[in-house]
Amino acid sequence: MISLLLSIIMSVLIANLLPFFTKVKSIIILQVFLGNYFLASIFSFVDKGSPLSAAGSFEIITGSITGILFFATFLIYQHNITKNGVSLSVGVMRFSVVIPILMALMVFGEPILWLNLAGIILVLIAFAFLTDTRSFHSILWLGLLFLGTGIADSILKLYEQYGLESSRPFMIYLFGSAMIFNLLVVLLKKTQFHFSSFCFGMILGIPNRLTTKYFLDALQQIPASIVYPIFAASVVVLGVFSDIMIWKKKFNYKQRIALAIMVAGIALLYFRTGI
Asked: Between 123 and which of 28, 87, 130, 265 could a Cys-Cys bridge form, CB atoms 3.0 to 4.6 Å apart?
């Protein structure tokens, strides 16, 4: 359970670092992510665990595909913000937890209590309330965002089920492939190297790497059908507190109801032996 809590905290930290970076006009966001993936790759390489030579085709393929999806989903998310607005884009990313949850229940047959199922339904209802459909413009880009995020999260579960006990080789290929594709996009755009953006990205790389590491550890300890909704909903709730305390954001009546429903859903998810 500690691993899941640490993963949630690291994810909330990332969510608060990104608005700060985007507010600085001189920062080039693509190079921020390049620095992020660079440092995450270095941390993965020097981490303790199985040697890279222990990786088979499964680790190489799943790690590389996940890394590409991580970066591609970021680009799709950026495009969705322009096409559909922030609220709807974030809402779709939250709804994507349905994909790994269904995989855990249907493919791996993970047990789930009725109280847990009620909690998942409440969390999804809350996400629906938080999503502003008035900003809807492009179903194609929303669909790509939904699938990209959901598939990337599902691959993490597949690796936990069939991969090596150590996540080190997987993490090296994940962040390494994301860094390579990020670099290719930067080179194709022919943008000048911006050292400060790269350094800001390396700051982001620390919690980014730890989020994935702790999340994989959590999947080994707790059923995925519980991990995914707890993670998604908890990040939203803690994000709300940081929005109020740090960014001085105000929430309307509809959003307050949605957050209350989400808190109730999270509470029901904790009704499980061994958590």
From this structure: 265
